[in-house]
Design a protein that fits this description.
Helix content is about 25%, strand content about 25%. By secondary structure, the protein is α/β, with parallel strands linked by helices. The protein has 3 domains: about 130 residues, Nuclear Transport Factor 2, Chain: A (Roll), CATH 3.10.450.50; about 210 residues, FAD/NAD(P)-binding domain (3-Layer(bba) Sandwich), CATH 3.50.50.60; about 130 residues, FAD/NAD(P)-binding domain (3-Layer(bba) Sandwich), CATH 3.50.50.60. Strands 1, 2, 3, 4, 5, 6 and 7 form a 7-stranded mixed beta sheet that branches. The longest helix has 20 residues. The radius of gyration is 26 Å and the shape is globular.
């Protein structure tokens, strides 16, 4: 199959229709049940559309105000034309220009029958703005400053002073998301300061249970601009990721205040378009005036521990998994772990290895080169995955395939939005041989002096109980700082009517306030879109 010829012929038609601003022709190139994802190209928003009806309406309303030219097929190894994921399909990347920016696109073509024979149509089409013209990423510097008359420390001190005097963006939170957003902003010329409440960057990882190891491979949790060494472990342990984040902040020359957190209640001046926000910097109060505040304080809020009758009667220890000190403290003791997420599984295994007699309570519904792959993974989203699962419904069993059958990622988005109640239990008793027996549909009724009493009347005797039951929604935490301002913002996470995650890396409903939620990949990809929006606002291309 001549994948290059097929992709080139289809892209030539796309280029012609875009340059002519022909919405009908543009729509005709997409499969009748196809998907179009627009990230800041046709509008200054993020949209996912399905089917020619939606796509025709959207393109008719917006293609006339969008000037697109210089559409070129990619020739690099990763994005050049080739066979797609589905048998008989063709995928490729392409680049293009708008009147204000540089864009990148991806498409997957499938062959469909027609009266005149067969045609290639796009089942997936992604078009995204990659940078604004004249504001492309800075890239690597020469490393020589003022003819070598200035030392690096002098250069850095001067840059930090200038940044703090005319601060464009304040990033609250120095975890992986906050640091990647700051690194992206810096590369795109946006003066940025990060404030982190802990004493050291990476402490949010160091304070978690000792046996924690990331459950995604290193390719998935790679940081922007800074890949891991070739001999880095496939799955990164807690302390290594903590130290790597600390080193990342240094090597990316980020401006970070540790032992620092915002105080209630920031105020926004719509005339100057700046915030007034007080920062407690290790006991010293500093008032700053950024144009934008990006909340990268984590997707989750405070630890959630269910309110169970009789807790005061229990003579043992009962605490959330966030405070689990490691299995060594419980050698020879009976421990019940409530939950079956990653934390519960890790803690149960740690207890088993350290010699504790662990039992695990399980929820009935189980919630259990990177930048190039980020483009590919973002070509499709929630709606398409949901539709695919529906078409394969006959193969499904009683496992939880997420909201509408869209999979675990949208399930996480829905849960993190605060919509779902998670606490339904079945009980898994993990024997020392790790042979599991499952008793499903059973919840916890109450505590007794030395056990948990289940709904079916059985008991789990315990010296300690670890609740790996997740966290409350982040909104309740941010409202403590921002007060009524948070009421003016929309929800974060879940999926909106446009097929995109709510709130993250896009306008929140309040000017100058942004969220950067999600995992490593979310901030690697989303930080670019967020930076472009901040630049577009500054240049007058975009209005809120």
């Amino acid at each position: 199959m001549d994948t290059h010829g097929i992709a080139s012929a289809w892209l030539t038609k796309l280029s012609s229709y875009l340059e002519q601003k022909d919405a009908s022709g543009f729509t005709s190139l997409i499969h009748s049940h196809g998907w179009f994802r627009d990230l800041l190209v046709f509008t200054w928003n993020l949209r996912t559309l399905n089917g020619q009806g939606q796509i025709s309406k959207y393109s008719s309303a917006n293609i006339g105000s969008t000037t697109i030219s210089d559409v070129q097929l990619c020739s690099d190894a990763y994005f050049k034309p080739g066979s797609g994921d589905q048998p008989g399909s063709v995928s490729s990347g392409f680049t293009f220009s708008t009147s204000v920016g540089n864009g990148r696109g991806l498409f997957t073509l499938t062959q469909v029958s027609s009266d005149s024979g067969s045609e290639w149509k796009a089942f997936n089409l992604l078009m995204a703005l990659e940078s604004l013209k004249g504001f492309e990423p800075i890239g690597a510097e020469q490393g020589v400053y003022h003819g070598q008359s200035f030392s690096w420390s002098e250069v850095r001190e001067n840059r930090q002073r200038v940044t703090e005097e005319d601060l464009q963006a304040l990033v609250v939170g120095g975890g992986q998301n906050g640091l990647q957003v700051a690194a992206r902003f810096q590369q795109m010329g946006i003066p940025t300061l990060v404030v982190e409440k802990n004493a050291r960057i990476g402490d949010q990882w160091r304070k978690r249970y000792p046996s924690l190891t990331l459950h995604s491979t290193k390719q998935y949790h790679t940081l922007l601009y800074q890949p891991y060494p070739q001999n880095w472990p496939r799955y990164t342990p807690r302390d290594k990721i903590a130290d790597w984040l600390e080193q990342y902040a240094v090597s990316q020359d980020l401006f970070v205040w540790t032992k620092s957190h915002p105080l209630p209640t920031p105020s926004y001046d719509p005339k100057t378009k700046r915030w007034t926000i007080s920062i407690d910097r290790d006991g010293q109060i500093t008032v700053i005036h950024p144009k934008h505040i990006v909340l990268a304080t984590g997707t989750l809020g405070e630890p959630y521990v269910p309110d169970i009758e009789g807790r005061d009667l229990f003579k043992g220890q009962a605490f959330h998994s966030e405070h689990f000190p490691g299995g060594s403290s419980f050698a020879g003791k009976r421990v019940v772990v409530v939950g079956t997420g990653n934390s519960a599984a890790d803690i149960a295994l740690d207890l088993h290895v350290r010699g504790a007699e662990e039992q695990t309570g399980a929820r009935q519904l189980f919630r259990t080169n990177s930048q190039n792959s980020d483009w590919s993974s973002n070509r499709t989203f929630y709606g398409q995955r949901q539709a695919y699962t529906r078409r394969t419904g006959s193969c499904r069993d009683e496992r939880n395939f997420g909201p509408g059958g869209a999979g675990l990622l949208p399930l996480a988005y829905e849960d993190l939005s605060g919509k779902s109640a998670l606490f339904k239990l079945c009980i898994i008793h993990v024997e020392r041989s790790l042979q599991d027996t499952i008793k499903s549909g059973t919840g916890i009724q109450k505590f007794s002096e030395n056990a948990l009493v289940l709904d079916d009347g059985s008991t789990l005797e315990a010296d300690a109980i670890v609740f790996a039951t997740g966290y409350v929604h982040r909104r309740s935490v941010t409202k403590k700082i921002f007060g009524d301002v948070i009421d003016k913002t929309g929800p974060v996470y879940n999926i909106d009517e446009a097929g995109e995650t709510r709130g993250g890396y896009r306008p929140t409903g309040h000017p100058g306030l942004w969220y950067a939620p999600g995992d490593f990949e979310a901030s690697r990809f989303g930080s670019r879109l967020l930076a472009i929006q901040l630049q577009a606002l500054e240049l007058g291309y975009m209005n809120l």
